[in-house]
């Protein structure tokens, strides 16, 4: 049986990533309730929809910002707003010393406008400036639009379990 999710890896040293001219905001500058609405509406009806309530999304956002998945990397977590409301966001944590994109979401009304790609480019440039050499994410195998985006950015399917990731990566993924 094939696992339902895959771990994908991007080598940050190999490519050049230039963020768009768009204004990105620090994700912590946005109210948790507004982020929860964005996450809820972005996940609704997708293969990753687990029917979370707004309250559950508020709790999840609080939890990851308080290091649920390892230290939250605020310098690599961003939001895009429109009319003072978040329309897309990306978050990153240091999961067992490995940079991990924990979430990337775009409101359905703003999809297919390259926001995900722009957020990924901004995150990648930020991680490179912080001297990281790789970044990982977990994608549902059935989320073909997301996998297509990640592959277009250079991400490659790496494995299906974290033991393989952690055993094949140096503990300190920053350049010396």
UniProtKB/TrEMBL annotation:
One of its GO terms (molecular function) is acyltransferase activity, transferring groups other than amino-acyl groups. Pfam families: Acetyltransf_1 (PF00583). PROSITE patterns: GNAT. It comes from Vagococcus allomyrinae. Residues 25-172 form the N-acetyltransferase domain. Gene3D superfamilies: 3.40.630.30. Keywords: Acyltransferase, Transferase. The keyword Transcription does not apply. InterPro entries: Acyl_CoA_acyltransferase, GNAT_dom, YpeA/RimI_acetyltransf. The keyword Ribosomal protein does not apply. This is GNAT family N-acetyltransferase.
């Amino acid at each position: 049986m094939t696992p339902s999710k895959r771990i994908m890896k991007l080598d940050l040293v190999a490519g050049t990533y230039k963020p768009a001219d768009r204004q990105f905001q620090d994700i912590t500058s946005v109210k948790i309730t507004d982020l929860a609405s964005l996450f809820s509406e972005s996940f609704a009806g997708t293969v990753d929809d687990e029917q979370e309530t707004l309250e559950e999304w508020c709790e999840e956002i609080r939890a990851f910002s308080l290091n649920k998945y390892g230290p939250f990397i605020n310098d690599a977590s961003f939001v895009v707003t429109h009319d003072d409301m978040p329309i897309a966001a990306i978050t990153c944590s240091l999961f067992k010393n490995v940079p991990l994109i924990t979430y990337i979401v775009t409101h359905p009304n703003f999809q297919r406008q390259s926001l995900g790609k722009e957020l990924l480019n901004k995150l990648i440039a930020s991680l490179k400036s912080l001297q990281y050499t790789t970044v990982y994410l977990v994608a549902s195998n059935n989320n073909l639009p997301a996998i297509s985006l990640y592959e277009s950015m250079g991400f490659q399917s790496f494995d299906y379990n974290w033991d393989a990731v952690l055993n094949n990566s140096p503990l300190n993924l920053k350049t010396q």
